[in-house]
Each structure stands twice: as C-alpha cells, then as structure tokens.
User: Fold this.
Amino acid sequence: MREAVPTDYLANERTFLAWIRTAVTIMAFGFVVARFGLLLRELGGSTAGSAVPAPISEATGVLLVLAGSALLVMALLRFHAVREDLRKGHYESRMALEWALTLLLVAVGAGMAYYLLATG
Assistant:
C-alpha cells in the first residue's frame, strides 16, 4: 500500500467530524423526544383520560441521548484507529460503527412505529 499523504489524514478528520455531527443530531433528537412528551402532557392538562405516556417518550429520549454519547466515543476510537493505520501505511476496513448506528436507528424507528400504531 502507498504511504499516507496529508489528504488521507484530512479525509479521516472530515469523516470524524461527520460522525460527531450525526451523534450530536441523535442526542438533540433524543432531547426533543423527551421534552415533547412533557409538552403533550402539559397541553393535555391534568385530565385523568390523558393518553400521553410520558415515561415512554422520556425513556426513548434518554436512550437516544445515551446512544449519541456512545456514538461519540465509538467515532473517536475509530478516528484514532484509522489514523494509526495511515501512519503504519495500511488501512483495515472497519464496519462496527456503521452497524451500530444502523441497528440503533432501526430499533428507534421500529419502536416509534409500534408506539404510533399502539396509541393511534
């Protein structure tokens, strides 16, 4: 394999920053989901027939914030591993981060779809 050039390191940094943006977006979405349940509860008033299960939206929001935090750590580990690979002159493809993010988003999507079907 060829020796790494500065553009290889810069591409690694851009990829790392893209993962950071993705993680921060997931965390922000989690915050919105958690607070949206609170908003719906407040708008619904204190009626006994309120169908807004706040613990579900709160738990989903917290889970998304934690998942975004974990994604930040995974992105940092991947950044350093790729940088080390470039320094050594070889690159080994890793798919753990992509699989983790994909499975997380599939699980969140399936959970939200189930919630919408169950409460709609």
